[in-house]
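As a warm-up, study this chain.
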Amino acid sequence: MKPILTGIAPQFVVQDVVKTAEFYRDKLGFELLGYFADPPVYAMVRRDSAEIHFGKADSDKIQTNETVRRGLGTDAYIFVTDVNELYHEFKERGVEITEGPIKRIYECTEITIKDCNGFQLVFGE
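Now compare it with the structure written out below.
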């Protein structure tokens, strides 16, 4: 029987895992799965089938993809079933929406947001 990949959980390296996990919970509607160590050095969140982990940075410098790929710096692309409804949800919660909803030439409608660390997330349908 062939193995089946059942999910992926990108890990963002951040200065404050608690602040970040709470942003994802309060602003983006994720469920907080837990913190690890005291003080926390790791956290996990999940919304539906999308899971993201946060690890504490060793320094004050955070590197987003935008810092090395100007204009193409998406840190995570998350597929959704109703991007327009998600747009309205995020707007009501005060999320920094930097683009969209916009229909791309590849037939996906997307919104782009920045999280509390400057990571760029694209939600596409």
